[in-house]
Amino acid sequence: MKTEPDAFSFDDLKACPQKTEPWDGIRNYQARNLMRDDMKKGDLAIFYHSQAGEETGAVGLATIAKEAYPDHTSWDPKSKYHDPKSSPDNVRWLMVDVKWKQDFKQLVSLQTMKAEKALEGMRVTMRGQRLSIQPVEAKHFKKVCQMGGLTKAQIDKLGV
Fold it and tell me: Of 1.10.3720.10, 3.40.930.10, 3.40.640.10, 3.10.590.10, which CATH number belongs to 2-155?
């Protein structure tokens, strides 16, 4: 899950009550469908800071705390995520709740990920992959966790 840290960072998530926050504002159908169809309560997510200069990369882990439900910000005219074609009777956009799980000991930069042969084929390392939500294969997930400083025992405990 990618976010711009100046909009909402991993530290922001960690500071939330119960360390949980709605992942709202998704306005891409492919990302919405991934949330709707593939994200289940208890699933793990790599939290990735995008467009953060030298701090662009994976910073930690989050858990899906609540499966996809209507994103009410889409029908709120005061919201920056307002969509006039969306309403409670015509739900176009969804959100999930995410919960802080664990910090990485070190940032796993995009450049580092691109240089790692074991991450070949991971979407975030591919040119043109700009979605804020992307599926990650288990082997790539484990490798990013290892590169982030988690031990094999910590990774095994995650149950990936």
Answer: 3.10.590.10
